[in-house]
Specification:
It holds the Pfam family AAA_30. About 45% of the residues lie in helices and about 10% in strands. With about 220 residues, it is of the alpha/beta class. α10 links the parallel β5 and β6.
Length: about 220
Amino acid sequence: MFYLPLPSDQADRLASEPTTDFFTTASVLDAAAVLFVQNLPRQPATASADAQERRFAEIVRIANEVESAAPGRFQGQVAQHFDREAFAMGLGMLGENGIALLSTEVEYQADELLDAEGQWNFQFADSYRQRATPLHPVYLPSLASDLMLSDQQNRLLREFLSGIDESVAVQGFAGTGKTFLIHQFARLLEPQRTLLLALTEGQLRALQARVKDAAAYTALTFGQL
């Protein structure tokens, strides 16, 4: 999991509002994050989160070079070619690609985002994650393993365990641990009695990739029901 240097509220406005003044004050990192999200639907679905972060770091490197040669040009180019529909589609794909946005509720310093050479800081994700969703050791006998869970994950997993035949709704921003919870939920289910459902084929493949022994489950899109 890595965090794009783009606050989630700004991303939502970019995806939903026809006009925005975002690019008039956007930094090089802001514009690089927007370009990355907009291009995400065209990237290979099999790319790992580490590969995605390296791709973003390369965008930042190129953006810095453009900025050095002609200040403001990179932001202008991104604004000129901004595609709101493609950007919104990319936002919807962040979670399944192991990518998250920044929360307005978690503080960080701008200089944390770059390393000493002014390039993308690959250590930022670990330090930010601990602030966004601090993890604590938890032992659950039903899973026969020690887990590192956030408080929210711990509550949800225990709720699931206390009523395994009841419905549980999990909602949250990308990077808050929903995929990890799905993996833990699946460990408690009987494949023969479980149906995996998703809206699209791509989402279904992403779900199956997070479930152990996925071939033992029946998996369908809602359109195939």
